[in-house]
């Protein structure tokens, strides 16, 4: 009532300024989303940040506890080329698709309570350029690489924080998974170097999180045979033959080593029909029109057989993991969804869960040296891996962690969720650098998708500095 008697006009510029201070130019506060009933029970901001010729799209979800003090985490997905929306909807965010009784149209969304945003603000970015809703304004700008995209992601983060200064003082974590283990490690290094060089504002980096990350091509690729033997896909005799004739190198084997070549050929045949993302799940390649392409891009970790397009509303009787993925296409390509998200219409004509035609050069095959350097900094690090993952096997992850030559402070032990062993963990420390490795039992690639609830507990303990 009293409001009406106030002189409203002079207040207007002030009010606008207040809004502008909180919501950066080009940002949208999303209150409702198609498919979700009522208002979103958390704060979602979306928008673009310009870096070089790139317009990088983000989804920011504010911590649901104490956003003024809780940490903030930058998160992006692997591929390269997989949208951060994967992380939001399938892995660590507070929303999930409700596929019960799906009958076509915009899929419905439900609130997902075990979200990492319960304790942490999360800045999901579609990176590198060409991923999700991110795009380039020029032809040349589409070309990117591990080092270039890491640099752009670092610049994105700086710009976003400068536009949202209230988050600058909070503890900052970088979180990536799968292929982005490579560029994510370089982002961390860029931040450290920026801080050392006195670049302002200083970023309050506290640590990083690597989910089934690609770190070293040689270790990773060789670990596949070792892992396959360990979980019983390959007989002792075949494994021994490979070990004897291949001199520890099981990848890119040629006929110049005939006995090794023979052993690897047998191995390849044995695992041909195994689902590499989760060795216990059906492979479902029959649903994919892109098998040829998948095979030719095997070197990339995440170019999976998931991107078949079902014509809605047909959901086959047989359950396949990638049916869930189809939902994301129907949702993100809907005009009402894009309008609600503040997406610039007509630029990304056909949103893809993972862009397989990214103009991307793999210019770094190992970031092990980055972690050797980072292990001299006071950082908190979480590394985790599923034990049913044949794309980035846990054996390889354990191997490169070991190669950092850190001191064990809490040796291999089970970690428990709801009275059940959720995995095994080991903690290392070296002059302020603290690295926790955790395996996730029964989880494929990536664990936070396959064991969402358990990974929520793992993250929660880590971010609160509790032992996992
Ligand atoms: C999911 O959708 C079904 C069918 O429309 C509905 O009955 C159910 O309540 C929904 N679940 C949640 C958690 O929203
Ligand atoms: C086996 O590998 C080691 C180390 O990678 C290398 O030094 C050695 O020459 C290799 N031996 C053969 C027979 O290829
Ligand atoms: C995928 O990336 C390429 C090259 O970066 C780009 O030209 C294309 O538009 C992208 N596709 C989608 C669907 O965004
Ligand atoms: C690691 O640190 C050394 C010494 O400061 C430096 O020469 C090297 O380039 C660094 N390596 C990486 C990958 O950053
Ligand atoms: C590992 O650490 C030990 C003890 O700190 C040291 O003696 C050894 O040389 C290190 N090895 C490597 C490969 O760095």
From TrEMBL:
Superkingdom per UniProt: Eukaryota
Keyword Ribonucleoprotein: no
InterPro entries xref list: AB_hydrolase_fold (IPR029058), Peptidase_S10 (IPR001563)
UniProt GO BP: proteolysis; secondary metabolic process
Keywords recorded for this protein, A-Z: Signal
A GO MF label: acyltransferase activity, transferring groups other than amino-acyl groups
First and last residue of the signal peptide: 1-26
UniProt family annotation: Belongs to the peptidase S10 family.
PANTHER family: SERINE CARBOXYPEPTIDASE-LIKE 17, SERINE PROTEASE FAMILY S10 SERINE CARBOXYPEPTIDASE
Name this polypeptide is given: Serine carboxypeptidase-like 18
Organism: Trapa natans
